[in-house]
Amino acid sequence: MAIPRVRTTNLPGVGVQYDLTTREHRHLSVIAHRDGSRSLNVYRSDDPDACAYALHLTGEESAALTDALTPAHHSPGVLHTTDLGLVAERIPVGGSSHWNGRLLGDTRMRTATGASVVAVLRRTGAVPSPAPDFRLAGGDTLIVIGTREGVDAAAAILGRE
Predict the structure, then answer these.
(1) What helix, strand, coil percent values describe the chain, rounded to 5?
(2) Distances (CA, A) of 20 to 4, 5, 39, 40
């Protein structure tokens, strides 16, 4: 079976559109909006340019759907597990979090857990390898990598109200 091709189109001011035609000749598209939300569109089989159904998903709903479509694990926040026993997980910082407005270094996460924050996802974009002086904000999602125990401990630290 041939691997389906995904066509990518930049949509200035909106985001990126990904188009796929299934083996049943159905046209699907996903628009990845700049705010992290997604639009999933299914087109009519008799007219591949006419949208039959559109669904708008928040960033969190999109992440949950991705996890459901690729269930390599049982935890919905886990991104990937390697043979080395490491996991990467999305950990949100809530608006009422103790860490909202505080510096990443103040969490002492790496020292306390051995887990590392490799990126922060923010509505305005991703911040790879944030420094200790990076200021956290409610709504941020931290990508944390470490052992299962370390990532769980990091989630407990970040979940502090």
Answers:
(1) 20, 40, 40
(2) 7, 6, 14, 11
Distance of CA 102 to the CA centre of its chain: 22
**CA pair distance 96, 82, nearest whole angstrom:** 33
Q: pLDDT (tens digit, 9 = 90+) per residue, 38-93?
A: 999 999 888 878 899 999 998 888 877 877 776 655 555 555 555 567 878 888 88
CA distances from 120 to 18, 125, 128, 140 (A): 24, 9, 6, 6
Q: Residue 38: how many CB atoms within 10 A of its CB?
A: 21
As a whole number of angstroms, the distance between CA 44 and CA 96 comes to 44
Rounded Cα distance, 18 and 1, in Å: 21
Q: Tell me how far CA of residue 112 lies from CA of 54, 71, 101, 146, 151, in angstroms.
A: 45, 30, 20, 12, 11
What's the length of the chain? 161
